[in-house]
Amino acid sequence: MSLDQADPIFVGGTVGKSVAKPDNLEKVQGRAEYIADLYRPGMLHGAILASPHAHARINGYDLTDALDAPGVVAIITGDDVGDGRMGAFIKDEHAIAKGKVLYVGEPVAAVAARTEEEARQACRLIRVEYEELPAVLSPEAGLEPDAPILHEKLSEYIKVFDAGSEGNLCSRTELSEGDVDAAWADCDVIVEDEFTTQPQAHVSMEPCGALAEVDATGRVTLWSANQSVFRVQANVCESLGLPMSKLRSLTPRVGAGFGNKMEPHIQPITVALAMKAKRPVKLILSREEDFEMVRARHPYRVRMKTGAKADGTLVARDCEVLVDCGAFADDSPGVLGYSLLMCGGPYRIPNLRASGRLVYTNKLRFGAFRGFGNPQVLFAGEQQIDQIGDKLGLDPFEIRRRNMLQEGDQWFVGPRIGSNGLARCMDAVEEAAKGPRADGSPRNFGLSVTAHISGLLGTGAIVRMLEDGTISLNTGATDIGQGSDTVLAQICAEELKLPFDQVVVASPDTDGSPYNWGTTASRVTYTTGRAVKAAAGKVVEQAMDHAAEMLDCDVEDLELREGGRIGQRGSNTDVTFAEISGRAHWAVGGPLVGSETLVFDEPTHDPKRAIALGLPFPRIGVFSFAALGVDIDIDDTSGQVTVHEAWSAADVGRAINPRLVDVQLHGGFVQGLGYALYEEMVWDGARLANPSLMDYKVPTARDVPDAIHTFIIEDPDPTGPFGAKGAGEIGLNTVPGAIANAVAKATSARHTDLPLTGERVLDGMLGPDPSQD
């Protein structure tokens, strides 16, 4: 069966149905248009000259040879941009290096030429005079009293929250509940260790790119592969000193994001080139540049201590993290704060303290990546839960059941839990994974559980009823391949009781779309979905008023019927949306339009019960839950870990589109598998040593288990659209912890460093070298 015929168009409710994504067919046939496919008349091609130094002053440029090179139309350097800075939490980053470079790979100059080859060749002819400075290559080094300072003007930067910034300390966060220091005396068992996690590259199929065109009035139209047209607009305008009204930001199809399409450099550089060349410019990074220039998952150092009573009741946890920020703050203060919010896991721990420091280093910026800091602390926390259970003779399910948060409980420092299907997630995994393998051999089983938020920041939706009664939906949310356009259309269709194919979703466009902060943090289905449902509801209310006049009855006597009709209760008499919309457009009242804007406004922190300092998200919440079980094999010779089978269960409130939830759980597992076992960005001094798919290993089909079982658990959240919560990240969070727990069961050796390479696992199997005693 072809993709466009995989599912019928559902009448009688689309929510809960696996409606096929409308863009499936165009992608399979190669007709989807990404940045690489776009063209404008007279278009030039851009290329970037990257810094060879990790830390150096720029004393001057010699552009003579480059300007004389074939095909070159324009060159920009830091001298072509003002002192404007951008940043989600701290405004610390120029569009292009200005005065100093802060990492190997930072853009220093850019060329627009007739062809990409000519632009890249001209970049090689640019001469930059550098004064090399000592580099900071680790957060520990950055905190040394005599460390070189990356941002000398840090105190002058605009900050959207009190970050506690000084020296190379980008930000700090401290959260505390109960009395942790006194609580250790009440513990019968205590486990403590230090854990490290590695940088992970996003490796989206599509590298970052942009296309900019300037019209006769000087207004810029910018197409880019992004996760928010509005953050792109803000970054470009802040860094280039443009009024936001002078920039229109749009999104074509996006070849995946996972956080790296929030990249702030490419768009302003492309715009600056187009403005100087006075011609359209397209710039697309090479795969190597995408590795070296964009962003990656933060490496963490986690010190964690957890204590419990003899019956397994958790009493206290202390978590301290040190995080490599890279050269610029970007999303890092948010990642730090969120990871500390999640460091207790979905458990009742009455005494919990979390503190963290985020340190500038001379590496590429680290930023948002699926999981947003949660997988790093979960790797430590879920292992300590298993360790306590082992010491007390409690199996992994029992120790978790005795301590898990319940519906109505409050999360660490404050947010209240509205719905919680974690128990059912664990039940599903335990039932499916119990007993030996099919061949009778025992399982090497590991378990991990998690929670993740869905409610965050601002969004909006506009629902217009067209003249024939069909619907145009505009949200400003970018579909990066996960299917959010499909899900939001389903929510809209359900509220209007229309067939799915009668709702079309507009592409994000800052000129006409309502504001949406971004496709990130598992927030679109829940946060934007709420706005869609409310906006569609307002269209229904307006249609009801028209129908009451057309049918000469009271609104209270009317009902909304399937297929876009409104009729009198107890009667076959009704009118169609087409008839209502025709009347509104041409006779009475005006077109039917419903709009809704909102910002998630539940406070993160309850000051009456907890202390929170330097927390960048004042309002965050609504929790999804998940459990993952894995069964692994370990090669006795190499130590290589292979996942034999996996069971992933997630409470997503209500699955608006079960197939898309299933895809998210599968994809999250595979990406987490790479994080747990294979993937690691490795630096040789200041230079990234493996910026290619030849040297950076990601899981292939041969590495992924044939049996990945998924279980969709529905515990509707009272505030979600039709009860829905987020599902985008939660399937990744649990993977490293579950695999580490399985390795410990199979080898009796605990591992505190990711990735769990064959060499590390083999070392654990062999035990300590007696000659080193």
From TrEMBL:
- The Aldehyde oxidase/xanthine dehydrogenase a/b hammerhead domain sits at 29-134
Q: Which SMART domains match?
A: Ald_Xan_dh_C
The record's InterPro entries line, in alphabetical order, gives: Ald_Oxase/Xan_DH_a/b (IPR000674), Ald_Oxase/Xan_DH_a/b_sf (IPR036856), Ald_Oxase/xanthine_DH-like (IPR016208), AldOxase/xan_DH_MoCoBD1 (IPR008274), AldOxase/xan_DH_MoCoBD2 (IPR046867), AldOxase/xan_DH_Mopterin-bd_sf (IPR037165)
GO terms for MF: iron ion binding; oxidoreductase activity
Recorded superkingdom: Bacteria
Q: Which PANTHER family does the record match to this protein? A: XANTHINE DEHYDROGENASE, XANTHINE DEHYDROGENASE SUBUNIT D-RELATED
Query: What name has this protein been given in UniProt?
Result: Aldehyde oxidase/xanthine dehydrogenase a/b hammerhead domain-containing protein
Task: Please name the taxonomic classification of the source.
Answer: Bacteria, Pseudomonadati, Pseudomonadota, Alphaproteobacteria, Rhodobacterales
